[in-house]
UniProtKB/TrEMBL annotation:
Superkingdom field: Bacteria
Record Gene3D superfamilies: alpha/beta hydrolase
GO molecular function, one term: catalytic activity
Residues of the AB hydrolase-1 domain: 3-219
Protein name: Esterase
Protein source organism: Streptomyces inusitatus
Amino acid sequence: MDIILIAGLWLDGSAWDDVVPELTALGHRPLPLTLPGQGDGTASATLDDQLEAVLAAIDATPGKPLVVGHSAAATLAWLAADARPEKVAKVALIGGFPSDDGRPYADDFAAEDGVVPFPGWTPFDGPETADLDRPARDRLASTTVPVPETVTKGIVHFTDDRRFDIPVLVICPEFTPTQAQHWITTGESTELARATHLDYANLDSGHWPMTSRPRELARVLAEAANS
């Protein structure tokens, strides 16, 4: 199966470099995306531009792909499912939940001169980075790129309720499936609360498993694609 890989804020397609060969060895075709304004060399982009890039990747696949969204890009993956419900086989969300309709995409971090730079590791102290040693943090930080403010403050809009019938796998890295279920049922993700086919996978890592546990992540994604 084609597996479209969308990394979260500040990361381009190279974030999946250690996952790609593992997925290939497991018989799948990984398609890591570098989004407009987020590593492709353009000076600016909007949330709509990024969504169009994901939709172009979906439309270029011969069958129905698995669409994977990491962190903030959980929303981008879900927006793509909303726009192409007949073309997406399944959605996998790693360490993130879709924003609600009418809310900003990802405006939790401060902008500087029109872009949102990687804020360093201090905001992520705790379970999110517990599995990253200093060299791993340095390597990951060196690959980050500022994200246009026009992306992070873009307003999320959903239009097609058929998205709720697409199977969703919630991959739980720095939190547990039990915690994720509780958050969803108590209203922290109104989108996933309406999903009719919702499963969970426990990864027991930090927030960036593509860096710290690429083989294990690939296995979880391959199993999702096979099921």
